[in-house]
Amino acid sequence: xxxxxxxxxxxxxxxxxxxxxxxxxxxxxxxxxxxxxxxxxxxxxxxxxxxxxxxxxxxxxxxxxxxxxxxxxxxxxxxxxxxxxxxxxxxxxxxxxxxxxxxxxxxxxxxxxxxxxxxxxxxxxxxxxxxxxxxxxxxxxxxxxxxxxxxxxxxxxxxxxxxxxxxxxxxxxxxxxxxxxxxxxxxxxxxxxxxxxxxxxxxxxxxxxxxxxxxxxxxxxxxxxxxxxxxxxxxxxxxxxxxxxxxxxxxxxxxxxxxxxxxxxxxxxxxxxxxxxxxxxxxxxxxxxxxxxxxxxxxxxxxxxxxxxxxxxxxxxxxxxxxxxxxxxxxxxxxxxxxxxxxxxxxxxxxxxxxxxxxxxxxxxxxxxxxxxxxxxxxxxxxxxxxxxxxxxxxxxxxxxxxxxxxxxxxxxxxxxxxxxxxxxxxxxxxxxxxxxxxxxxxxxxxxxxxxxxxxxxxxxxxxxxxxxxxxxxxxxxxxxxxxxxxxxxxxxxxxxxxxxxxxxxxxxxxx
Length: 512
What we know:
The chain is mostly helical. The protein folds into two domains: 31-244, MFS general substrate transporter like domains (Growth Hormone, Chain: A, Up-down Bundle), CATH 1.20.1250; 265-436 and 471-507, MFS general substrate transporter like domains (Growth Hormone, Chain: A, Up-down Bundle). The chain is 72% helix and 2% strand. The chain is built from 19 helices and two strands. Strands 1-2 form a two-stranded antiparallel sheet. Helix 8 runs antiparallel to helix 14, helix 13 packs parallel to helix 15 and helix 16 runs antiparallel to helix 17. The chain is globular and about 95 Å long. One of its GO terms (biological process) is acetyl-CoA transmembrane transport. The chain crosses the membrane at residues 37-61, 73-90, 105-124, 136-158, 222-240, 274-295, 307-325, 337-358, 370-396, 408-432, 473-490. It holds the Pfam family Acatn. It is found in: Membrane. It is a multi-pass membrane protein.
C-alpha cells in the first residue's frame, strides 16, 4: 500500500520540483534583468551628457554676441546622430572576440569621450572666450563636440545591439524606454542642470546664503567631473560586466557590404523615393522658429538659465506624451494625425516669433509671472504638435518597413526623417545674418558693420553703436511660414496616397 502511494506521489513531486525550478529561474532572470536595465539606463544617460552640453554651448555663445553663421557652424556637431546608419553595419559586424561584440565599440568610444573631457577641461573656458571677452574658437569647439557626437552615436549603435542579448526576451521591449528616459536624464543634466549651476544669478537666488561672483560650477569643472565619471563607468563595465559570447560566421561579417547594397535596393523603390522627398522637406516651415527662437530669447535679454529651466516641466511631458499619443493614433492610417497636427505646429512658429518680440520689449530686464506662463504654455503646445507628428511618423515607418530586411529598412526611414531636421536647422541659422540688416551708427567710417562679434567690437571702439534695421529672424519666420503653407498644400495629398499603398509596394520584391 505504501509503495503504491509513493508511486502515485512521485509524478506530483516531480511536477512540483519542476515548478519550483522554473520559479527560481524566473526569479534569477528578474534580478538579472533589473541589474541589466540599470546598466542600460546608466549607459544611455551617459550618452545624453555630451548632447546636453552641446545644447548649452549655443546659449553661452549667444551671450558673447557671436554671429548666427558661427552658430550654424556649431550646429554641424549634431549631424552624426542623423547619419549613423552609414557606419552602423560596420559596428554590428566587426569586433574583437576577446573583448566582445558590443564592448569592442562601447569601451573605446566611451574612453575617448571621458579622456577627452578630462584633457579639454583645462582649456575649455579659453575656447569659450574666457573672462577677457576674447572671441570663442568656434572651429575647435565644433570639431570637439563633433567627436563627442560621433562617439555617442557609435555608443548608441553598440548599446542598442547589446540590449537585445543583455535582456530576456520578455523584457527586451524595455530597452527603448531605457533609451528615451536615459537620454532625457543625460540631456537634462548636461543642459538644464549645467546652465543653472553655471549661472551666478540662479545660484545667488536659490542656492547660496551669501551672494558670490560666479556660479557654483563652470564648464571646466563640469567637463572634468563627467570625464572622470565616463572613465570610471567604462572601466567598471569593461572589467565586471560580462557579455554573452557571439561567434558570427565569416559570411555575416562579409555581409556588411551586402547591408550597404540592401540600402541602395530600398532607396530605388518609388514609394521610398517619394517618402524621402516628403520627410526631407517637411520641416522647412518650422526651421527658423525651432532652431533660432531660444537664441533670440537670450539675445533679447531672457536669462539663459531661465530658458533651461523651462525644460524641467517638459521632461515628464516628453516621456509621457509619446505613450499617450501612440495609443490615440493606433490604427492603419497614422499619417492622418501628422497632416492634422502640421498646421497647428506651423501656427506655433508665429506664436514663437510673437513671444520673441514681446521679450525684446522688456527693456528693463524684468519678466513677470504672466510672461513665464505664456512662454511655458507656448512650448507645451508646441511639444504636443511635435510629438504627435513624431509618433505618427514612427508608427508609419513600422507599418511600411519590409520585415524581411530586419531593422535596416526602418532605420533608413528614421535616418531620412532626422536629416530633414538637421539640414533645415543648419541652413536657418546660416541665413539669419545674411537676411539681416545691421548698421554701425555714430561713426564716420561707413565700412564698419555689425554682423560678427569682431565687427561689433570695432564699431564700439570707434565710438559708435550697432542698430538692427531688419532682423533676419522675423524675415525667416515669414518665409518659412509661407513655404510651410505651400508645402502642406503640395504634399498632404501625396502622403495620403503613400499611406494608401499596399504593403507589397514597399517591398523590394526579391531584388535584395
